[in-house]
Amino acid sequence: xxxxxxxxxxxxxxxxxxxxxxxxxxxxxxxxxxxxxxxxxxxxxxxxxxxxxxxxxxxxxxxxxxxxxxxxxxxxxxxxxxxxxxxxxxxxxxxxxxxxxxxxxxxxxxxxxxxxxxxxxxxxxxxxxxxxxxxxxxxxxxxxxxxxxxxxxxxxxxxxxxxxxxxxxxxxxxxxxxxxxxxxxxxxxxxxxxxxxxxxxxxxxxxxxxxxxxxxxxxxxxxxxxxxxxxxxxxxxxxxxxx
Length: 243
Fold this sequence. Notes:
single chain; alpha/beta; Rossmann fold; 5-stranded parallel beta sheet; 9 helices; 5 strands
């Protein structure tokens, strides 16, 4: 079960540390360079960070987006730099007709879904014949990655860290991703970026702040259930130490 609150913490916002988005945007623009006025659907658009970048580089593109978070969609609709048709909905049951889009892009969404196979099937359904399905997914189940190591060892209690803090339900390996896409798409090009430098960068900029908050919350939780007399002794002890 995914208890992550997408209304309280909607995704897809601009981030100072999100340098990876530049590389992702370049790869996507390269993939659609031969398409004229492409009709593009982003599934799980969040607040529209990625679509905004596409709009800037490809003003001819017709942009559509869907996200499960009403908060995220409302934010995107209010953004004057982002023009398109955006709606709330489920990636596993897209509210669009068959053969409608030239491109479907899914950015860091499949790992949040209970049945990612349905989302891929839906992407295939709404794509025009010969359309492009372009997606990104963290392979947290890939052997010898940092996330795989945390799940195997539970180092510092971080086995379920991405589930608790980011809402991840799936931990894909590269081979599992290919198995999911093979039934629907005949031509598959795969690019990996799971090198250790990138993982360490994400650990420092994305994970570390969450880890600090996570451990601080645990400390506060323990203190909140401490009996009153123990709290008093703890306060007295800390005052004595300060002296």
